[in-house]
């Protein structure tokens, strides 16, 4: 497998299209699903109208979260799907039955259009709509529904729209019903035990502590009615080690890490470095061991990741 740059000459795109056309002709001749007579429908997208198959049998998610969305919606997957650089498989909290026989290829941060074409998808879900070149090139490979899933908005709004476009509103509604019911259970348990902490997501990069209220953690904080530390609500809040006393009002904090040896080592190194600060070590959430870590893949906004973060937080607060 060769991972290619996002920026390849237009000749490569033409070659990919030609190759796919030959593959499509061969598939039709063999009587495979998804040939020239497959039923389609036209739907609106952020990038105009697109024609999509009504009954895809080999869908591909261009980004990891797209794979989870397809699986959650019950859409059959192509035999090969992408993962981020540094990963060889999908998170344990993804739908394992749907992924049981799926191979992987690295497709981020560099894109492998050859691997996408080799998967022979009859539908592509592309959540990286911020990359206009990818939107165009994927549409040349297979029918593609593109959405900018990383514009800072609640990913669940895009999920609903995507489900409707793919004819899977019922499946999306079922996920929301399960999630909302679980939120209600956790809130009742927190209320029954009088657990109402002030929370914050706190990471370390660029030699500073970084706080934010972007993405899945803050959405789940809100769903559970938790009190988010005011500093975390500020845009691009960052603190040096000399400023960590500003976190004295935080009762519970969370941080993401990348599973695996490299991620474990990086997380341990960060904690060791932070421990050199006596002020940091005396913060309530540090001294009382309430600085919990979660899988980085939960951050990016997908049904399984969002539900998994809820369970992680429930276990952290109630355990």
Automatic annotation (TrEMBL):
<dbReference type="Pfam" id="PF01497">
    <property type="entry name" value="Peripla_BP_2"/>
</dbReference>
<feature type="domain" description="Fe/B12 periplasmic-binding">
    <location>
        <begin position="58"/>
        <end position="319"/>
    </location>
</feature>
<comment type="similarity">
    <text>Belongs to the bacterial solute-binding protein 8 family.</text>
</comment>
<keyword id="KW-0732">Signal</keyword>
<dbReference type="InterPro" id="IPR051313">
    <property type="entry name" value="Bact_iron-sidero_bind"/>
</dbReference>
<dbReference type="InterPro" id="IPR006311">
    <property type="entry name" value="TAT_signal"/>
</dbReference>
<feature type="signal peptide">
    <location>
        <begin position="1"/>
        <end position="23"/>
    </location>
</feature>
<protein>
    <submittedName>
        <fullName>Iron complex transport system substrate-binding protein</fullName>
    </submittedName>
</protein>
<keyword id="KW-0813">Transport</keyword>
<dbReference type="InterPro" id="IPR002491">
    <property type="entry name" value="ABC_transptr_periplasmic_BD"/>
</dbReference>
């Amino acid at each position: 497998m060769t991972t290619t740059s996002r920026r390849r000459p237009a000749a490569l795109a033409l070659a990919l299209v030609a190759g796919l056309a030959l593959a499509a002709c061969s598939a039709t001749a063999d009587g495979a699903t998804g040939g020239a007579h497959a039923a389609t429908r036209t739907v609106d997208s952020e990038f105009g109208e697109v024609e999509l198959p009504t009954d895809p049998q080999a869908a591909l998610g261009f980004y990891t979260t797209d794979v989870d969305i397809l699986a959650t919606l019950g859409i059959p997957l192509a035999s090969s799907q992408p993962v981020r650089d540094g990963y060889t498989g999908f998170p344990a909290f993804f739908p394992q039955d749907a992924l049981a026989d799926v191979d992987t290829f690295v497709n981020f941060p560099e894109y492998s259009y050859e691997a996408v074409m080799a998967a022979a998808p009859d539908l592509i879900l592309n959540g990286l709509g911020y990359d206009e070149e990818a939107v165009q090139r994927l549409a040349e490979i297979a029918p593609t529904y593109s959405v900018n899933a990383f514009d800072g908005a609640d990913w669940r709004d895009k999920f609903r729209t995507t489900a409707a476009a793919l004819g899977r509103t019922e499946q999306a509604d079922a996920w929301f019903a399960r999630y909302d019911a679980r939120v209600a259970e956790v809130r009742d348990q927190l209320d029954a035990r009088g657990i109402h902490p002030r929370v914050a997501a706190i990471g370390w990069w660029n030699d500073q502590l970084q706080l934010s209220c972007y993405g899945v953690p803050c959405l789940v904080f809100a769903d559970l009615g938790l009190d988010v530390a005011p500093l975390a609500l500020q845009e691009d809040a960052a603190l040096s080690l000399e400023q960590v006393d500003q976190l004295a009002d935080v009762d519970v904090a969370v941080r993401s890490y990348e599973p695996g040896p490299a991620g474990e080592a990086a997380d341990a190194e960060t904690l060791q470095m932070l421990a050199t600060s006596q002020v940091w070590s005396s913060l309530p959430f540090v001294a009382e061991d309430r600085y919990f870590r979660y899988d980085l893949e939960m951050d990016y906004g997908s049904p399984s990741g969002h539900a998994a973060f809820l369970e992680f937080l429930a276990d952290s607060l109630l355990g």
